[in-house]
Amino acid sequence: MLSIFLLIPLSLMLFVVAIWAVRYAVKSNQFEDLDNASQRIILDDRQERRQVMQAQENATATQEVKEAHDMTSIEEHSSKLNNVDIAANPLSDTDKNSKI
Description:
Strand content: under 5%
Helix content: over 70%
Order of helices and strands: HHH
C-alpha cells in the first residue's frame, strides 16, 4: 500500500514529461518528413560532391579561357611588333642590297 503512494505520483509526473516531450517534438517539426529523412544523408553527400566537381570544372574552364586570352594577347602583341618593324624599315633585305 505504501508503494502505491509513491508510484502513482511518479507515474503521473512521468506521463506529463512524456506529453511535454511529444508536444515539443511536434512543434519543432521533428515529424515533418518521415519518408525522406533516411535518404537525405545520402542525397546531401551526392549534392555536395556535385558542387565540388562543378567548382573544379569551372576553375579549369576559367584557367583555359585565361590561357587562351593570354596566348591571343601574345600573338597580337607579336603581330604589332612585326608591323612596327615593317613600318620602321619599309625596304626588305633584298631591296637594301639592290640599292647598294
